[in-house]
Amino acid sequence: MAEAPNPVPVAYQTTGDFTLTPDWLNKGDNAWQLVASTLVGLQCVPGLVILYGSVVKKKWAVNSAFMALYAFAAVLICWVAWAFKMSFGEKLIPIWGKAGPALDQKYLLGQAFLPATETPFLAAIAPFYPQATLVYFQFVFAAITLMLIAGSLLGRMNFIAWMIFVPLWLTCSYSIGAFSLWGGGFLFQWGVIDYAGGYVIHLSSGVAGYVAAFWVGPRLPKDRKSFPPNNVLLTLAGAGLLWLGWNGFNGGAPYAANVITSMAVLNTNVCTATSLLVWTCMDVIFYKKPSVIGAVQGMITGLVAITPCAGLIQGWAAIVLGVLSGSVPWFTMMVLGKKKIFNYVDDTLGVVHTHAVAGALGGIVGAGFLAQPTLSNLFLSVPFERGVIYADGHGHRAALQLAKQICAALFIIGWNIVMTSIICLVIKIFVPLRMSEEDLIVGDDAAHGEEAYALFGDGEKFDVASVHPGDKYKTELEAMKTDDIES
């Protein structure tokens, strides 16, 4: 039998000016980074879409899920059009990069690059995959941040106002945090540790959500008093996608499939499991019943708290952090959050507790106290990154690192308070931030003309205007009854 002709080696296959497998490309790193990106994307769609659509009252299921779905799509277009380069491009000012599109083929097929510090021990990092991979990986991080903010605003925000809020906040707030901490800005140059977004994503979304909730206003008193999930099992499905998707969240942060990746994935799951168990035990001790929704909250706080330091701490430290993330946010939410002074702002899903508190906890305690020098050096090769418990004769360096972590947290908090307030006040000039009282009574059918479940009339709905209380509603209801009898 004649032998088949030898194929052209893949390394020499080209398309125009581009080599399909250039010398710098590591297929394993590229494959993992795309998988990690997809895992984070699945956290968003369908993860948070399912979670939001099921953890709220039935009348808000469609609106809540749609807020998340819209944010995912809107962020992607803004990201490739201008926001990626504002976050990871050439420096404009110490907190902001120059805006520009990330759509050029030559730019996207070239080797990805990351900023260099202005000190001699760390040169620019060049991951072994195309720039397109980095653009998409960072997009899903940006998208989930906006989707987390939505959790504070469910059940009353005007959808048109939300459509405007997403690109404005991405441009004026998220890109500032991303550039400052990751893209070569002043906090990056200063040596602040934010392994995978405890500050850039979670602290910023928790603070921004709380501030936006203040400006939008509360839900109806009836909704605030009773807001049961419409489907607890679907809530668990969405939570499960969040948990496993976090392997890509923290596993993708090293920008390579290396030993830190494995450590980060294991630590993420250990901390999360510990936090879930601690939160559940707290519920049993103080409320005599284990709560499924409480367990989901504990799961989320564990995922968030480990994010700023996932690949930089040892396994025992992940358990310690899990104990803290299952108890400290529990206390702020279940005790302080029910005090009148803290209950003034209607943060629907308690994002300020699950993300802002837990994110700050991970950034300050996890990175500031528990970061292990060897792991830190494997991640960034920066010799003075160490937690306080590893001072070992370098107490001044460890104390300085802790101070940097605290200052960075304060910067993110302050910027988001100011910028989120400005954005909301500007939007308010053009459209109401909150739905009308009439629409709030009805929910999804008034906001979108759609309902989540066909529990009445086999899916038939009234005209949007007719669902409001009044004579027209009664007249139309009687007409429907008459039609049924005649048919």
TrEMBL record:
GO cellular component: plasma membrane
Ranges that cross the membrane: 31-53, 65-84, 135-154, 161-183, 195-217, 229-249, 255-279, 291-313, 319-337, 349-371, 408-431
Record membrane topology: Multi-pass membrane protein
Domain (Ammonium transporter AmtB-like) ranges: 31-453
Gene Ontology biological process: ammonium transmembrane transport
Subcellular location: Cell membrane; Membrane
This protein's name: Ammonium transporter
Source organism of the structure: Riccia fluitans
Lineage: Eukaryota, Viridiplantae, Streptophyta, Embryophyta, Marchantiophyta
